[in-house]
Amino acid sequence: MTDRLLQAALAGDRGAFDQLAEPHRRELLVHCYRMLGSVQDAEDAVQDTLLNAWLGLPGFEGRSSVRTWLYRIATNRCLNLLRSGRRVLHDSEDPASPPTAYGEVVWLQPYPDSMLEGIPDDAPGPEARYESREAVSLAFTRALQLLPPSQRAALLMRDVLGYPAAEAAELLGVTVDALNGSLKRARAALAAGEVRGRPGDPDPELLERFVAAFTSGDVDGLVALMTDNVWVRMPPLPFEFHGTDAAASFFDTVAAHQRTIERMVPTAANRQPAWGEYVRDPVTGGLHLVGVLVIGVSDGKVDDITHFETSVAGWMGLPRTLDS
User: Fold this and answer.
1) How confident is the model at residue 173 (pLDDT cuts 50, 70, 90)?
2) Which helix H or strand E contains 251, and what residues bound it?
3) What residue ranges do the domains of the chain occupy?
4) pLDDT at residue 111 greater than cutoff 50
């Protein structure tokens, strides 16, 4: 089937090319998201990848699979985007409480679980070090964004996609020695950072207690559910709060706002629990979305809380308004 489709595509049949490429679209999108940290940028990169693949199809020599060829194009597209310009911090007001740090990855977006359907959870290649679930977590994706582009690509090719060293080097257009050097530095950077092990399956009771404490402004109850190493973030603002003391100080300042949240609509992103936050509109009486919250859980406690703006709602399947 694949050979027949390829021959038809090489003869100019765009429909045949689409049938060849479509089975790989979702995994290419996740790959570009890991490279870029943004769903919107990833979607643009995949669109460009498929267009470039179609236009460059006469040059496809069949020395690799169509899947690997598409990964080559997608990775190079992401590398070009990363090297063409630096991302900059957004302007923002001073935070209500002193942040622990000023984060660099202010463009990070959540990746909806609905867009992960059909992608296997197990390791996609024989030499992969990370399972798909771990390699799409917010913590892992955030850590990747702090790596130089060449290190990011090397780690994804080898440790996430599981390509052998020689094949990964050819795919990236570098020598094996250069690839191994980039990979060694990337692994060391991740080992020295905050990336934890595979995310755990949260206890439903923990999630219920979290929502209750969060919406009632119960700071003590909220902090009791956190690990000592908890991080609180809110991209695109650069402010980050680390540890329970800093988290408690932050939530003290926003407790009044949290009490206005009347409904938390559950969803999921990055294989992690997430909710849309809705408050009552005093004019219309309806509920409108004011943010998206994603948490990470480790050892039965919350170790990461990230609040996103409503711009990500469309990908998350969250309506802007609710009737009641």
Assistant:
1) very high
2) helix 244-258
3) 1-85, 138-197, 204-322
4) yes
